[in-house]
Amino acid sequence: MFFLGLLKEEKRGGKDVVMNSSPEITTNGIAPVLSISPMQEDHFFLQNILDRLQGTLDPSRTFKVNACATLGSALAALRTRQFEIVICERDLPPGSWREVLDQVTILPDPPALIVTSRLADERLWAEALNRGAYDVLAKPFDRTEAMRVIGAAWRAWGAPARKERRPYKVAAAGGTM
Questions:
Q1: What is the pLDDT of residues 119-167, one digit of tens each?
Q2: Would residue 159 count as lying in a domain?
Q3: Residue 160 belongs to domain spanning
Q4: Judging by beta carbons within 10 Å of its beta carbon (0-12, 13-18, 19+), is residue 68 exposed, middle or buried?
Q5: How many whole angstroms separate alpha carbon 97 and alpha carbon 143?
């Protein structure tokens, strides 16, 4: 089953506003994945990979890519929706994957962040992993490697792993647990 929820991007009052053109992504049975790239073919490739992984990861859930083409729309989506995995292009003018990571890390239940780049080298891998990203995928995408990385991210950070992490609560600044 092929899903690609496109997030319509609009400007309202000078701000990026994101609207999901597909059904609400928090519906039971849906595992939402945010794909951030100005290239539409990236979103379709990632959805195809998720469709292929469907039976091996979680047969009870349908993985659905929600596509954002800009940094602003992606940050807005992250503030208003919960995603299982975020797959982000390295460069998103006027910013980069770092702004996405900053937003992801402040979420109460953060998704795994996978950075993609045509210039994926050891330096990017080191920086991404040291800053808290889950992994880096080189482009053009290799189907086998993409399936391995996305599958591992789901097993490590997706809904099943989150249930195991939930007992750990973070106290508010100055508060006690």
A1: 989 999 999 999 999 999 999 999 999 999 999 998 887 655 655 554 3
A2: yes
A3: 4-165
A4: buried
A5: 22
Q: Averaged over 73-91, what is the pLDDT?
A: 95
Record the pTM. Answer: 0.77
Instruction: Answer yes or no: is 174 within a domain.
Output: no
Look at the chain and report how many structural domains it folds into.
1
Instruction: Kindly state the tokens that stand for 29.
Output: 């049975």
**Looking at the domain assignment, is residue 18 inside a domain?**
yes
* CATH number, domain containing residue 21: 3.40.50.2300
E strand spans, the chain? 4-12, 15-20, 30-36, 62-68, 85-89, 91-92, 95-96, 112-117, 135-138
Confidence label for 60 from pLDDT (cuts 50, 70 and 90)? confident
CA distances from 112 to 2, 70, 173 (A): 22, 19, 24
